[in-house]
Every structure is written in C-alpha cells, then in structure tokens.
Request: fold
Amino acid sequence: MHAARNERTGARIARARKRRHLTQRQLAELAAVSPSTIAKVEQGIMAASPAVTGAVARALSVPVTDLTGQPYLDELRRDQLDTLIQPIREALDLYDIGSDGDPVPRPLDALHADAERVCARVRAGDLKRVAAELPGLIMEATAAAHDHPSGRAWRVLASTYRTAYDVTGKLGHVDLATVALDRMDWAAQRASDPILAAIRQYMRALVHLRASHYAIGQRLVRSGLAMLDQVPDSRERQVVRGQLHLGAAVLGARAQDGDTADEHLAEAQHLAEETGEAAEVHWLAFGPTNVGVHRVSSMAERDMFPEALDAAATVTLPRSWPASRTSHHLAEVARAQLWTGRTDAAFRSLQEARRVAPQQTKYHPLVRETYMALESAQRRLPTTFANYGAWLGM
Reply:
C-alpha cells in the first residue's frame, strides 16, 4: 500500500513543519494553538480538527489540501473519477469564445431542465454521473448564451458553473472549484442577477472557510447580503439571505467567536420560520432543518462536543432532505461522538454517512480523519471497521 494513502494529517503537518525548520512549539505559536495539540496531532493521538488544520496551513503558508492530502488521487483513479476532471477543466476554459457551431445547443427549456437535474443529483451525492455529464452540458449552455444571449441563458450557464464548483470541490480539486466560481460570477454579471451573485459570494465564503481565512469569509457574506438589498422581498430572497447567515455562523464558530456564530444562527432561525423548509430553492436546502444542522456544526467547531450531540438529538432529518447534506451532518456527528468517547456510535455514524451518500463520504476529509482517530483509539470496534478503511483506500 502506498504510504501516502495511509498517512494522517498529523504526519503531513510534521513533514511541512520540518521543511520550515520549525519546532512544535514555534509552530504552535504561529498557529495560535497549544503546543500539546500540535504534538498530539502529529503523533496521531488527536485527530486534526478543521480549525487546527486551517490554522497550521495558514501559519506554514501552505494550502489546506497539502495537509489533508486532497485530492485523493489513488482513490479517484481506482474509481475512474480522475479522467472526468480534465473535461470539466476544458469546458470551463471555453467560457468566453462561444461554440463556433459545435455543439448546436438544444432549446433553452431543455438546458434549464438539465441544469436543474444535475444540481439535484449533486445534492443526492451522485458525483460520478454528474461529472461525466457536466462538460457537455457546460459547452451547450455556453453556446446557447453566446448564440442567443438573454438573462435566462446566462442564468442557466451560471447554474452549470455552480455545479462544476460543487463537483470539483467535493472531489478535492479546490483550485478548479475556485475557477468555476469565477466563471459563475462572469455569467451572473451578464444575467444581471443579484441573487446568483449573492449565492456565489456564499460559496466563495465557504472556500475561505476551508482555507481558514475567516475574516475574508465574513466580508464575502456581508457583500452577499448587500447584493440582496437590491432584490424585492420574496421567499427566494429570504432563503438566500438565511443561507448566507448560516455560512457566517460557521465562519464565526471556526474562528472561536461564539457570539457572532450565535447571532447569525438566530437570524437564520428567524428567516427559516418565515420560509419553512425550502430545500429546492436554488438547492440550498435552507429551512429549520438546516438551521438545526448548522447549530450542531457551530458547537462542534467550538469543541463543544457534548452540546453538539445534545443539539443533534433534536434534529430530525426529513427523508427528502439532500443526501449530501445528510452525510456531511453525520460526519460532524461522528466527530463529536469520537471526542466524547462514544467510539462505537461514531463508527455507526460513519457507516450511515456511507450508506446515504457513498461517493461524497469517501472523499470527505473529515470522514478520513475521524476514521484514523478511531483506529488510533485502540478500542474494540466492529469487525467491519477494517473493511470500511479498505473502502476509503486507507
């Protein structure tokens, strides 16, 4: 087995630290975390939380993905997903030159229906099928927007770029996901659609969340909220506003600013009471359920793991809720269960995440880090534990 596939984030942190000729204490000072945390993470005694990983990446001036090992190329190749990335890259690169007659796009109604369908499939966790279909759809939508420009045509194209962001980001190709967001902005400007532009700011904020740039993320949220001030009051506007507040809540929690996190959660809760469950509005899954899920995430990000589990116990996920959101929530619950000593329950949550959305779960860095921490706990685990690790490629 290739050594890198079995490597913890802590081992990558140690290697990156040594390349910078830093001691553990020096790195701890730069990252504003305790020296004991750095030591335990590097030794594999403690799982590297997203907050710690982000702080260390910022201190070492390396991308977070260098420390998490993304993209997981061996597993992508084994699942024949690696060959699907380059066609998406090429389709994104043709954004400004039209089609030159090839392909001849279908009617806009058909393209809109397909754009909605692939977006829904991403939410269902069907990444491989979407990645295979997406390049052709992007090229058709590009041709339609250039051949017969209209606000609706540009919105359809922006939707395909948004899906490209989702797919490439979930598969660990963060740089390509950022390119997709730039293309989304380009199309949203031509559509003169402030709601699409605000959604794009929300997604940019998530990119900066993962990179541990919390202040920039909060600025992007404020920018998105300001864009919505241009839009007449509607349920759609309230849904997007609420989702921006949820993003700001997690940014605040990751920055260990509990007051800010709670303020944004309260505002999102107020908006969710107005909108009700609105999972299909721009496929943001906004509503009371998502507020509850983000409350769990906010507590976990602040290392309030018993409180996070108490909050999780009050959340009932509807059967119709997007599988991608369900699996992500289960991964966060598993982390909280791990840190409260409930190792068996943590593994059951990881198993359930796999059942609900296997493709997303397999490439989720939090799942991998939690799995390796369970392995290090040296507690009695089900016999299926090794099989789960083999499935992850670890």
User: Anything to note?
Assistant: The longest helix spans residues 127-147. The chain has 22 helices and no strands.
